[in-house]
Amino acid sequence: EGQRRFLESMSTYARQFLERIEKPDVDQIQHILPTIALEQKNHIKNARSTVGTVTEIYDFLRLLFTAIGAMYCDNCGGIATKATPNSIDAELKRQPSGTKLILASPVSLKDFSLKTLIAQGYFRALVDGDVIDFSNGLEHEPDCLEVVIDRLVLKGEDTSSRLLESIRKALELNPHKVNAHILGKESPQVISYQTQFACQQCHKALIEPFANLFSFNSPLGACKACEGFGKIIGLDLDKVIPNRGLTLEEGAVHPFNTPANQEMYDDLMAEGKKRKIRLNIPYKDLTDEEKLFVLEGKGRYIGINGLFEWLESKKYKVHVRVMLAKYRGYYPCPVCFGSRIKQEALQVRINQKNIHDLSSMPISELRGFFKSLDLTPEQQHVTQRLFREIESRLTYLEEIGLGYLTLARQSRTLSGGEAQRINLSSALGSALTDTLYVLDEPTVGLHARDTQRLLSVLKNLRDYGNTVVVVEHDPEIILGADKILDIGPTGGKDGGRVVYEGGMKAFLATDYSPTAYYLKHLPQIENNNGKFNPKKAEWMEILGASGNNLKDIDVRLPKNQLVALSGISGSGKSTLIKQTLYANYQQSKGLELTLDVAPCRELRGFEDFKDIILVDQTPPGRSIRSNPVTYVKAYDEIRKLFAATRQAQALGITASHFSFNSPGGRCETCEGLGTITIDMQFMADVTVTCHDCQGKRFSPTVLAIEYEGKTINEILDMTVTEALTFFRKSSRVSNKLVPLQEIGLGYLHLGQSTSTLSGGEAQRLKLASYLSSSERKSAEPYLFLFDEPTTGLHLTDIHTLILALRKLQESGHSIVVVEHNIEFLAHADYIVDLGPEGGNQGGQIVAEGPPEAIIKAKESHTGQYLKERLSARSILEAV
């Protein structure tokens, strides 16, 4: 409704689509404010977008460096300046009173003739220290003449206006230079003032700082080599030799393993034996000289580089381009070293720090830098507004638990919760009033320690005169609300009702709200706490993890246990599990890398797993056509049921006609999507219901077929819970859908696009597909890695999730979960707590062991909250 009303104020072009935008299914909405909705998704895919640009802090930094940044010469290290009439005037006034002064302007007689100078009222010049009159001409005309502008005696304020006026006249003749001759001493002193921006020591002309010089999104500031991306594309040796544990004889060089390149191996073997290269030991154990031979080649063997140089010359062939893309990767730009901007911009510094240095600092450290700056009164006056804007935004970022981020961090690498809180800080920095803010679970990815800080930020937003509506499951945020609207009582068709509306005191007194019930009653912990025996456990180990902020740590994780990885936001949990454990495992198996590989010395104990499966918060399907029923492979069985009906057989309709992904039975206007997307050019695209099929996806012929009184569209519109009741006679369908119900996704519609799911729903949908597939029943164990699966879960659903994970564990699989939720952590068998803080102050193991062991660690923030949870009788006490 907010979008619709906003569009009503737009141009005629935009309004022509208004009738096609569906109004909300509601009788009336009154007193709606201008609305900002902050989703729990990170929609930014642009590699140019950073935390600094999204929050606008980087834009203020550019202005700050333009205003007070000192340009250092790349030739001698001197500071570059330029003289102005006012600065020259101020400096000359510092001479003792009574000082005699001659102001002269060096003039080229190629640009000015003597007649021209005389016509302008100038008759005198300085030649060898003497003032001469050239009104009658000169015997020998030099190339350059020092024209006397004025002769005066400095007497404080009496000469103020005259001196400044004379300086301006001098600069009219020569805009770049003016000479001041100080007389009355044993030897006259000449002071030359350059108005060009140049080094004071070596006089090298330099670029005067301007705002776009510091912008990597502008051609005026972006590094020419990488065009402002900070990285260049090139040959990725990790992809060329994915498994460095293999020997050259075993085929360590991946691109040589194709029939077309078999000759390369023959040459490598022949030339290697001739040069006594050790072909039978792992590549990682070869000497630098031997590795250089493999890369550069010698003799008849042209080397890896030689092969790819030859392929570059054949890029006109499609299959060659495909092969080149397969082995390419991104590297820091060798020109700007990842800073994205030109060298001239990096020469500008404030307190010996350039703009890239500041962008690379954690936000908490950057705040300290600005607080310690010692500025002159003039600089303070010029930058007062800039500092106020920068300080307020940095403060908000730290208050909402993002002090570990840097301004240079790419926006697309942020989690959904981080992106939402970044947008929240931008909204706070804009200082809007009378606005409605709608936030979807802002505590996602936030440690319990920082929840109270987030709550205070939300209250500040309210105190500005805004309305803040928060969709949230976190007890601390719920208890801090002014008004509670409880929807339920459960999910799906049994939800959608207002269970309670009002204040907290009356809410806690209700006995019909599941939310209120769980706030008053603490669920019992049913796990293996106290039974875990480290002596009998089998371990998997990550040795020497040093990616990002990890401090060369050795991590041990027990097998066949529910293991949780906890710690403050930014402490290195995702780096350890995703980029270290998972990416290194992919690399060791020679699999296609989906993540950047973080360094570690060795992975041990992972040989027994059939595979490692990463279940993160990325959407389950890239296509908007993907939905829950197709993802768990239940739709194939449903199509077979429809195709087996007499009506379908009589009309010759097969199972393929019930597919909305291929022509035949689908609506061809919307191609089976049920919606049509309109390109609004200058705005976000508008999605409207297909006018031909009215959103039903299929042709009238297919929609006429019924199974048990329901059309295929009505089936897709059912929730999982409804479908389980409807298909109770068909075990092939119901068996596929049961895991969705078990995992707490019974409220999802079968035909709902997976692109609309939250990060937590996406993870649980993936988990359901594994629970329903053969992996769960496999004799060989799997290792499952989860990234905050409790996202979007009510307290009741967290226990449903834990039961589902226990089923995987009982089947012999191992589970490692990155998690902040204290309720989930209290149920874990084993916890590894990283920290003690985020960013540079994180990356260490603070505590490890069962929850009881974490509680005993004094440095562990997680332990403090676990202690409160385990000792409390209700969640009210725990928070």
Structure overview:
35% of the residues lie in helices and 16% in strands. The longest helix is centred in the middle third of the chain and has 23 residues, at 377-399. It is globular and about 120 Å long. The chain starts with a helix and ends with a helix.
Going by helix content, strand content and strand pairing, the class is alpha+beta
Q: Biggest β-sheet: count, sense, barrel?
A: 6 strands, antiparallel
The averaged pLDDT comes out at 87
Report the principal-axis shape. globular
As a percent range, the share of helical residues equals: 25-40%
TL;DR of this structure?
The chain contains 36 helices and 28 strands. It is of the alpha+beta class.
Which helices and strands occur, and which strands form pairs?
Elements (H helix, E strand, L loop, with lengths): L1 H7 L3 H4 L19 E4 L12 H4 L2 H12 L1 E3 L6 E3 L3 H8 L7 E9 L5 H6 L4 E4 L2 E4 L10 E10 L6 H14 L3 E6 L6 E6 L3 E2 L31 E5 L1 H4 L21 H13 L13 H9 L6 H10 L5 H9 L1 E5 L10 H4 L1 E2 L5 H5 L3 H9 L5 H23 L16 H15 L5 E5 L7 H16 L3 E5 L3 H5 L4 E5 L8 E6 L1 H6 L4 H7 L18 E7 L7 E6 L3 E6 L5 H16 L13 E3 L7 E4 L12 H4 L3 H9 L2 H5 L24 E4 L7 E4 L10 H4 L8 H5 L3 H7 L4 H12 L16 H14 L1 H4 L5 E5 L7 H16 L3 E5 L3 H5 L3 E6 L8 E6 L1 H6 L4 H11 L3 H4 L1
